[in-house]
Amino acid sequence: MARRILITSGKGGVGKTTICVNLGKSLAKLNKKVLLIDLDFGLNNLDVVMSVENKIVYDIFDVVEGKCRIEQAIIEDFDNENLFILPTNRTYCPTTNSKDICEIVNAVDNKYDYILIDCPAGMDEGFVRGVNICNEAIVVVTPHISSVRDADKIIVKLEEFGVNLAGLIINRARGDLILQGDMLGINTIVDYLALPLYGILPEDDEVGVQVLVGGNLNKSSQSFTAYKMLARRIAFGESGIFDCTARYKGFIGGIRQKLRKHV
Amino acid sequence: MKNELQIIGEKRLKNVLTIDKSNNPDKIKGVILSEIINVLNNYMNVTKNDIDFDVAINDKGGYTLKLFVDVKHLKLANHIL
Ligand SMILES: Nc1ncnc2c1ncn2[C@@H]1O[C@H](COP(=O)(O)OP(=O)(O)OP(=O)(O)O)[C@@H](O)[C@H]1O
Ligand SMILES: [Mg+2]
Q1: B12–A145: do the CB atoms touch at under 8 Å?
Q2: Total domain count, chain B
Q3: Which of A64, A221, B49, B74 is at a distance of 20 to 30 A from A187, taking alpha carbons?
Q4: Which ipTM was obtained for this model?
Q5: In which domain, by residue range, is A191 found?
Q6: Cβ of A14 less than 6 Å from ligand 1
Q7: How many domains does chain A have?
Q8: Is the pLDDT of residue B80 over 60?
């Protein structure tokens, strides 16, 4: 049986889709078989971030409508045989019920180690659909008051639905600002949200480049390392969490901090 | 090292989370109910299922608490005293 993890957030644009793809890639590199499912109907982006937008013939709605078999809608990643995506590519949000989606997921559940579900932001229909098919949830926040506030609300909702709250990912953390005290501290966020911290992902231009050109994160990037640590923590329970402040400590780090502030 | 900005930010975050929680009777409900069960269990054996509990916002903008408890046995007096 797969671990079905809902990647959710209160606030939009905090990095759920990006995390789905890169966590999926990192888990796949650990020899885990991973399926990504796009539940952001009508506002889908998982296909673009995965660079499979030109490969889509059928999507999840074609499966629901009986136009194809589920295997025909699932697309393999361009360079990793362990990673797959079940996309959606409608420009509108067709009416579906959670039961149909649930049946689709149940039908493929035993073929994967992980099913990562890209959830739309907020608590609307898409969120409820996601809650109904997952067995655990990861909440994504950025180190900003509005994002943490909305995450707190989504955590209450997840508790109401009885979802197992696996952990928290803090995305777009800027080590330089945290050290200077110009950004909410990691401990503050973790204390207030009272969820186990799964990972910290740095603010990194490399993420934008990845989506721009399509493909994988550069192996020498901070993000690549951070995702690798996150995947190992999720898959094997390892304790390592990326330290986004490390490169801004010490003499050289101090210079980096100053440069980043003034550039 | 925390500076003034970070401390202000943390205070603002705490404030907004507190406001949200006080506007959310469901969250408060869960917390109050588990405390009530703890207290009642000093005197009787009750579980969540024996209790009908609700917190609702009343028309004065305050809260009304409703509590019905189904109890089969009270604990013996010498357990209590
Ligand atoms: N760690 C990061 N560093 C820099 N940019 C990032 C990072 N994570 C995400 N982004 C960028 O932030 C933007 C929003 O990311 P993404 O689409 O993954 O968010 P989302 O939570 O899925 O949004 P939505 O709620 O709209 O579905 C994208 O342009 C993405 O490239
Ligand atoms: Mg998204």
Answers
A1: yes
A2: 1
A3: A221
A4: 0.76
A5: 3-262
A6: yes
A7: 1
A8: no
CA A145 to chain centre: 20
CA distance A23 to A5: 11
Of all residues in chain A, the one with the smallest CA distance to B14 is: A192
* A5-63: pLDDT as tens digits: 999 999 999 999 999 999 999 999 999 999 999 998 888 889 999 999 889 999 998 99
- Ligand 1, atom 15, residue with closest C-alpha: A15
What pLDDT, in 10s, does the model give residues A107-139? 999 999 999 999 999 888 889 999 999 999 999
Domain with residue A164: its CATH number is 3.40.50.300
Atom of ligand 1 nearest to the CA of A204: 3
Could you report the per-residue pLDDT of A209-263, keeping only the tens digit for each? 998 888 899 999 999 999 999 999 999 999 999 999 999 888 888 888 888 876 6
Tell me which residue range forms the domain holding B59: 4-80
Q: Answer yes or no: do A149 and B17 touch at CB < 8 A.
A: yes
Q: Would you tell me the crossing angle of helices A205-213 and A222-236 to the nearest 10 degrees? A: 90
HEC string of chain A?
A: CCEEEEEECCCCCCCHHHHHHHHHHHHHHCCCCEEEEECCCCCCCHHHHCCCCCCCCCCHHHHHCCCCCHHHHCEECCCCCCEEEECCCCCCCCCCCHHHHHHHHHHHHHHCCEEEEECCCCCCHHHHHHHHHCCEEEEEECCCHHHHHHHHHHHHHHHHCCCCEEEEEEEEECHHHHHHCCCCCHHHHHHHHCCCEEEEEECCHHHHHHHHHCCCCCCCCHHHHHHHHHHHHHHHCCCCCCCCCHHHCHHHHHHHHHHHHHC
* Interface check B17 vs A, CB under 8 A: yes
Cα separation, A45 vs B81, whole angstroms: 65
pLDDT in tens, B5-60: 888 998 888 888 877 776 666 666 777 888 888 899 988 889 888 999 887 766 66
Q: How far off is chain B from A186, nearest CA to CA, in Å?
A: 11
